[in-house]
Amino acid sequence: MIKQHVKKLIFILTMVIGVTSLAQTISGTVRDSDGPLLGVTVSVQGSTNGTTTDLDGKYELSNVSTGDVIVFSSVGYATKDVVYSGQETLDMVMTVSVDELDRIVVVGYGAKKKSVVTGAISSVNNKEFESATNQNVQTVLQGRTAGVTVVSGSGSPGSGASVRIRGIGTNGNSEPIYIVDGAKVRDGIGYLPPSDIESIEVLKDAASTAIYGADGANGVIVVTTKKGKQGKPRVSYNTQIGYETYRGDAELLNADQFVQYMQEAGETQVVDNGIDTDWLDATFQDAFYQRHDLSVSGATDKINYYLSGGRLDQEGLVGGENSGYERNNVRLNISAQATDWLEVGINTTYVNSFNNTIAENDSFRGVVQNAIAIDPLTPVLYDEGAVPQEVLDNGMIDGDLYLLRNDNGDVYGYPTYSTGEILNPVAYADPLSNREQRDDNLLLTAYGKFKLLDGLDFTTRYSYDRQSGNVKQLLQPYFVSPESNSDAFALSEIWFGNNRYFWENFASYSKTYGKHSGQILVGYSAERTVGEGVNLSAAVAPSDYTEPFFSFFTGDRADETRTTTGGRGQNSQTSIFGRVSYNYDEKYLFEGTFRRDRADIFPPDNRAANFYSGALGWVMSKENFWGDDNPINFAKLRASFGQNGFKGGIGGNSDIIGIVTNTNSGFGISYDGLPGISISNFPNTNLRWETTEQLDIGLDLRLLNNKLRITADYFIKDTKDIIIGNGSLITPPSAGFPFASFNGGTIRNKGFELELGYGDTTDSGFRYDFNVNFSTIDNEVTDIAFVPEGTSLVGAGAPLNQDGVTRFEEGQPVWYFYGFRTDGINPDDGTVNFVDMNGDGMISSADKTRIGKPLPDFSYGANIALGYKGFDFNLLLQGTEGNDIFETFYRPDRPITNKPVDFFNNRWTGPGDTDATLPGAANVAQAYQSDLVVQDGSYMRIKQLQLGYSLPNDLISKLSLNNLRIYASMDDYFTFTKYRGIDPEVNSGGNAIGVDRGTNPITGKIIFGLQARF
Amino acid sequence: MKKVIFFIFCVAIFITACEDEFTEQQRIGVQPIEEFFASEENADKALVGLYDTMQETYIGLWDLGQGAFLTRQIFGDDMNKGGGDAADQSQYFDLHNFNIDPNNLYTTGMWRAMYKSVNFANFVINEMEKTDFANKEEVIAEAKFIKAWNLFELTKMYGDIPLKSEFTTTIEGFSIAKSSQAEVYAQIEQDLMDAIPNMADKSNLEQAFRFSKGAAQALMGKVLVYQGRHAEALPFLQDVINNPAHDLEPNVADVWNGTREYGQESLVEVGAVSSIGYAWGGREADWAGGQESNLYIQLMGPREGEFNLGNTGIIEGWGFNLPSRKLIDAFEAGGDNARKSASILTTAELQAAGGSVGSPYDYEGAIRVKYAPRADNSNPAATTQLNYGNNFHLMRYAEVLFLAAEAYIELGQDGNARTELNKIRTRAGATPIAATVSGQALFDTMVDDKFLELSQEGQRYWDLVRWGIESPELVARGKEPRHNLMPIPREEIEKNDQINQEDQNPGY
Question: How far is B132 from chain A (nearest CA, A)?
Answer without folding.
Answer: 20
